Amino acid sequence: MTRLVLSESCGGLAPLRARGGRRCAIALPPPLHLAAGPRRPFSAAAAFHRGWALRVSSPTRLASVIQDEEDDKRSSPSQGEDAEFNPGAPPPFGLAEIRAAIPKHCWVKDPWRSMSYVLRDVLVVLGLAAAAARVDSWLVWPLYWAAQGTMFWALFVLGHDCGHGSFSSNPKLNSVVGHILHSSILVPYNGWRISHRTHHQNHGHVEKDESWHPLPQRLYNSLDTMTKKLRFSMPFPMLAFPLYLFARSPGKAGSHFDPNSDLFQPNEKKDVLTSTASWLAMAGILAGLTFVMGPLQMLKLYAIPYVVFVMWLDFVTYLHHHGHEDKLPWYRGKEWSYLRGGLTTLDRDYGLINNVHHDIGTHVIHHLFPQIPHYHLVEATEAAKPVLGKYYKEPEKSGPLPFHLLEALSRSLKSDHYVSDTGDVVYYQSESETSTSAQSSD
Questions:
Q1: 126 and 6, same structural domain?
Q2: Fewest CB atoms less than 10 Å from the CB: which of 24, 134, 206, 221?
Q3: Are 62 and 3 in contact (CB under 8 A)?
Q4: Cα separation, 37 vs 20, whole angstroms
């Protein structure tokens, strides 16, 4: 069985074979500047810092069933030009080949450049709020809500980069900036960071994925009518994020604010308490501003943009894993691997919004190598396309605004309801498809 190395040099997962038939632990290679030359003393402080960095930016545990990439290649059927492409088949390439195609400078994290994006976004947020409050016109407020909600979403993406360690190589800087950005938009930084780590660690796995994962048919059938409507009827799914933070998804228990939730490991309790305290502090600041400025003004300045931000977050994260015209597989058991799960994610083009929300639409390479900084994702994706071949789904080009994606969202909500209770390679189904299939068999 293959184990994985988490590499600081590439930020990805590389196979490491166990020797002597024994289980192999997760290993973190030394930083590049220590890779060669005489060995230096390794202090206890350095060991603590290194372990803390691993906790912040990388998975602390790996799923027990990760396929050997070489076995995947040997078992992969022909995907030649004359053969019908099967997106659920093991790919004829591995993570190492994708990584090798990406230029080395794409892995470099520049904290000054990252902080410049934070400064840009914060200045825009403050400028929009000051201008809207000064003009105070009902002709301007709707424009402000759309713009400010989008900027809240941009702040979230930068905090998300902090959680992955792609913001900088300094874990303390990542933590401080991540807490400030996420707390300002009522997101518990560490609680969400850890659950998002679980999502990346298990992307494409029916039971173990954490974000917008499919429901097995038996669980779907057990939902009451109201729950089904809230999950699959617009606009309710686009308002799901706050509920998810407090109660997760159907079939999963826990809260992003509770350190004892099964989302977290025992040694992460202090991290969760810290982010929960930061969230409460921001809630207190908002309550104080509401008392000083009045509830109507705070509704206009903060609450409505917050709702727009939530809609952006749910819209983008959902479409990264749903809505392709050709349904993509989900996996269980031995069919799942980190690579195969990552290849079921989707890139999306958001037009003018691409730059505003830091190219988060370049999602495939981000999922496979989450420590690549956002400002290198487009270049890294272009470099990796020849290796990915047909496993890369080219995004539909957008006009200035991504209205074309609304159709993909609508189509997916109508047809992507559940997957079979059994099977290791499964695809979304809907009640209408199941009933039609049953009638045909009769």
A1: no
A2: 134
A3: yes
A4: 29
Give the closest residue to 155 by CA, choosing from 284, 248, 282: 282
Q: With left for phi above 0 and alpha for psi between -120 and 50, is residue 10 left, alpha or beta?
A: alpha
Which one of 90, 105, 120 terminates a domain?
105
In tens digits, the chain (442 residues) has pLDDT values of 443 444 433 444 433 333 333 333 433 334 444 444 444 443 444 444 444 344 444 444 444 334 445 445 545 554 555 568 898 999 999 999 999 999 999 999 999 999 999 999 999 999 999 999 999 999 999 999 999 999 999 999 999 999 999 999 999 999 999 999 999 999 999 999 999 999 999 999 999 999 888 999 999 999 999 989 888 999 999 999 999 999 988 878 899 999 999 899 999 999 999 999 999 999 999 999 999 999 999 999 999 999 999 999 999 999 999 988 888 999 999 999 999 999 999 999 999 999 999 999 999 999 999 999 999 999 999 999 999 999 999 998 888 888 899 999 999 999 999 999 999 999 999 886 655 554 444 4
Q: From CA 125, how far away is CA 120, in angstroms rounded? A: 9
pTM assigned to the model: 0.82
- Identify whether residues 199 and 310 lie together within a single domain: yes
3-state class (DSSP) for residue 293: helix
**Domains of the chain: total:** 2
- Are residues 288 and 435 both part of a single domain? yes
| Last residue of one domain, picked from the residues 61, 83, 105 | 105
Judgement on whether residues 96 and 117 belong to the same structural domain of the protein: no
Residues 110 and 45 in one domain: no
Q: Do residue 73 and residue 124 come from a single domain?
A: no
Strand segments, DSSP code E, in 107-228 are none
- Where b means 16+ CB within 10 Å and e means fewer, 337-376 reads bbbbbbbbbbbbbbbebbebbbbbbbbbbbbbbbbbbbbb
State the Cα torsion 203-208-212-213 to the nearest 10°. Answer: 100
Q: What are phi and psi of 9, to 5 degrees?
A: -70, -30
Residue with tokens 């004359």: 82
Q: Are residues 99 and 166 in the same domain?
A: no
Query: What domain range is 39 assigned to?
Result: 2-105
CB 5 within 8 A of CB 14: yes
State the amino acid at position 212 in one-letter form. W
| Same domain, residue pair 116 and 96 | no
List, in order, residues 6 or more apart from 373 with CB less than 8 Å away: 106, 108, 109, 110, 113, 114, 161, 166, 167
User: Strand pairing partners for 3?
Assistant: 16
